[in-house]
From TrEMBL:
Its EC number is 2.7.13.3. Keywords: ATP-binding, Coiled coil, Kinase, Membrane, Nucleotide-binding, Phosphoprotein, Transferase, Transmembrane, Transmembrane helix, Two-component regulatory system. InterPro entries: DUF7134, HATPase_C_sf, HATPase_dom, His_kinase_dom, Sensor_HK_TwoCompSys, Sig_transdc_His_kin_sub3_dim/P. Residues 196-388 form the Histidine kinase domain. It holds the Pfam family DUF7134. GO terms for molecular function: ATP binding; phosphorelay sensor kinase activity; protein dimerization activity. This is histidine kinase. Residues 160-187 form a coiled coil. It is an enzyme of class 2 (transferase). The chain crosses the membrane at residues 43-61, 81-102, 109-129, 135-153. GO terms for cellular component: membrane. SUPFAM superfamilies: ATPase domain of HSP90 chaperone/DNA topoisomerase II/histidine kinase (SSF55874). It catalyses: ATP + protein L-histidine = ADP + protein N-phospho-L-histidine.
Length: 390
């Protein structure tokens, strides 16, 4: 019903004032005969019909133009008083227009409309009532009641609008939070894919170069290099399938089991893989190992993986690397260093390796420092508070 009334507001307004219009038409002849008894100017039925139309017809526009309609009705009523034409049923249009102002305009305009209506009532009582001082207060009660009804409707309308606005704002904020969460998830997956692809592809390139070099002089070494390429490729595919599989999981289908995220326990395998790719790497652990959250273990693994990947790509021939993991009091320190030419290697524009390492460490309140070593080579030092969940 509300939707229909909003779409056909003009029809609703016409139906609302039709009882007043019928009252004016049916009583205009009787008021024409009794106007002389009220010490008012006697006019014919056509004039009264025209005056009634001038008062009632503007009410059709009171919904969209309440102040203008009230002004027109008030001016017509004031002209009626100046011409000494008695009060008609059509003068109830003043109260209808006043209600529209009180229900749809600010309190200042509502108060002004109430004062004008009360002033018009007082003028009418002084002109045509035998005892105006006694009749005016009782008639004012009716005017004030209509005015209060309009103010109540205005307050209720504003309250409903505020509720609707609050609901719309909450819906926009919910959608915005959903977009932010989706963007964060895409960024996380992009970092994971970067780490997986960059490391494994770098290892595969190094192995492929070695196989191409040794295929004639040392076929056995070339065969081992090709096997390492095959194993690295399978591992990369498995990790990428795990990451992309989370996104492609069908709603309502049973959740598939995916391999767990790599952690501290997989560092030995990572170092072994790097050694097989041709980069001699030492791995040492000092201090007392402690249990870490899975997310923090993944951050440690990815930082080491990215640092070794950079050593493979930029270290050059004859490079050796060293990975040191130290469990300190409330802190884990990772130190990945090499003696290659990585410090002098040209920087890749648009690279995300160091940025990704710093973001992973900052997620757990840590930091990453990456700089050339004084004796040659490059070094990455990451310090992460131990056991702090994201």
């Amino acid at each position: 019903m509300r939707a229909w009334t909003r779409r056909h507001s003009r029809i609703v307004d016409t139906l609302a004032i039709s009882p007043l219009a019928l009252l004016c038409v049916s009583t205009v002849e009787a008021f024409s005969r009794t106007s002389g008894m009220m010490n008012a100017r006697h006019v014919g039925v056509p004039v009264l019909l025209l005056l009634s139309a001038a008062l009632v017809v503007p009410l059709l526009w009171r919904r969209n133009h309440p102040r203008e309609v009230f002004a027109v009705v008030s001016v017509v009523s004031f002209a009626q008083w100046l011409l000494n034409i008695a009060v008609l049923p059509a003068n109830l249009a003043v109260l209808v227009a006043m209600y529209g102002v009180a229900a749809r305009c600010t309190r200042r305009w509502a108060l002004a409309a109430g004062v004008v209506a009360e002033g018009g009532l007082l003028l009418a009582m002084l002109s045509w009532s035998p005892d105006p001082m006694r009749a005016w207060p009782s008639a004012s009660v009716f005017v004030v009641a209509v005015w209060i009804g309009g103010m109540y409707a205005n307050t209720r309308r504003r309250y409903v609008e505020s509720l609707v606005e609050r609901a719309e704002r909450a819906e926009r904020e919910r959608d915005q939070q959903a977009r932010i969460a989706a963007a964060a998830e895409r960024a996380r997956i992009a970092r994971e894919l970067h780490d997986v692809v960059a490391h494994n592809v770098s290892v595969m390139v190094v192995q492929a170069d070695g196989a191409a070099y040794a295929i004639d002089s040392d076929p056995e070494q070339a065969r081992r290099a090709m096997q390492a390429i095959s194993g690295t490729g399978r591992q990369a595919l498995a990790e990428m399938r795990r990451l992309v599989g989370v996104l492609r999981q069908d709603a309502g289908s049973p959740a598939e089991e995916y391999a767990p995220q790599p952690g501290v326990a997989q560092l030995d395998e990572l170092v072994r893989q790097v050694r097989d790719s041709g980069l001699p790497t030492e791995f040492t652990v000092s201090g007392t190992p402690r249990a870490l959250p899975e997310g923090e273990q993944l951050a440690v693994y990815r930082i080491v993986q990215e640092a070794l990947t950079n050593a493979i790509k930029h270290g050059g021939p004859g490079t050796r690397a060293r990975v040191e993991m130290t469990y300190g009091p409330g802190l884990i320190e990772l130190r990945v260093s090499d003696d290659g030419r990585g410090a002098a290697a040209p920087r890749v524009v648009g690279g995300h390796g160091l940025i990704g390492m710093r973001e992973r460490a900052a997620m757990y309140g840590g930091s990453v420092e990456a700089a050339p070593r004084s004796g040659g080579g490059f070094q990455v030092v990451a310090r992460i508070p131990a056991g702090m969940a994201a």
